[in-house]
Every structure is written in C-alpha cells, then in structure tokens.
Amino acid sequence: MHPSDMFETPDAPEASPSATPSAPSHDLTTLVVPLLKGVLYRDEDTALWAALLKLQVRVRDYVAVLALDLVLDEAEGYAFLRARSSPIDDEPKLPRLVARRPLSFQVSLLLALLRKKLAEFDASGGDTRLILSRDAVVELVRVFLPAGSNESRLMDQVETHLNKIIDLGFVRRLKPQAGSVGRTAREPVYEVRRILKAFVDAQWLADFDLRLAAYQAQLDKPEAGAADD
Questions:
Q1: CA-to-CA distance for 94 and 68, rounded, in angstroms?
Q2: Which fold has domain 105-228?
Q3: Would the pTM of this model clear 0.70, i.e. be above it?
C-alpha cells in the first residue's frame, strides 16, 4: 500500500452584532489552503480545527470540484484531503492535486510495524499517545533482519527511514525524555501519530502475518548484496 499524501491563522476582528457564524477569520480559504498543503491536526491549531468542524460541509463541496474528498476523523483529531479514484473511462482524466508518494520497501515495512504496534497499544487500553524510543523502533525491525546485522548500520538505516516517515507526517520527533527505564537524555524519542490508522487500515493488518514471509525474503536480498560488495 502506498500512503497517498498528505498554519498561521489571521487575528480575528472584533465581533459585531451583524457578524455571521462563518466569521472572516475562518473562511474556505483559511481552511482549504492548509489542507492542500498537508494534514490538519486538532492539537496543533484548535481554532482552525473548530472552524473546520463548523464549515466541513462547505469544505467538502468545495474540494469535490477538485476531485478531492475530505477525510475527517473527529475522534482522533485529524483531517486531510484524499484524491478520488480514477474517473469513469469516458470522462477526462484530471491531474492529481494530491500526489502519490512511492515508498521504499524498508519504509513500507516500518510503517506496517508501527501500525501493528499502534493496534497493540490501543488494545491495552492505556494512554492515547504511543511514544517509542529509537532503540524500541530498532527492536521492531531487528526481528526481520539476518542474525549478526551490523548494529551501527542498522541504527543509521532506522533513523533514515524514520526521517522519511516523519516527512510523511506519520511520526513526530519529540524532545528526549530522561528518567525512563533504559532511556538516556540524548536518545531520540518519537510519537506514532494516529493518522497512520487511516493509511494502513484494519484489512491490511488482517493480512499482516501472511506478508511477513515475503518481507523477510525482500530484506534478505539487500543484506546479501551488501555482503558481496
């Protein structure tokens, strides 16, 4: 599966008796432009999020003209635009406003592992924020690597893949938190963002175990090639 894609709000003028519910500070432009740029998160701009909830019907109608759908998860607190599926054969093919971003196999695998970890975390009924250290992420991947893989190289690869996933908006880098068991003040810490659930869905997870053998075979090939260099 290839995840499909992925705000400074002007000051509100003084309210007047004639002001309408859709105040000038939050019109379609101030909502659609950020959505075209990426994901809108409730915790990053609560005022903009509230305006989106109020005007979501108008936003849906507006982006529909651009062959886009608004995906809004009020419970999880995120919203983004998704390109509609291919048009009917006799209709002209519209250019994509939201581009697809092909991912390497290793990044796709790490996304799948993080999604599965998020599902396990949710099932535990604990906190709503899944926060992992870099070492914890490395351990997720290590299971699928040949025994004796170079530790330094593995760390570098995981950080490279994590940076790509951060760019995609599925993970957020946090300030290191000292004091936790096995964690130093300098160790990178990451939050798995809940929007990942919208891109790696439950059906994909249902097939996850069946795909692991294929993943293992794919991962062995680069390692074998590197050993020959």
A1: 11
A2: Arc Repressor Mutant, subunit A (1.10.10)
A3: no
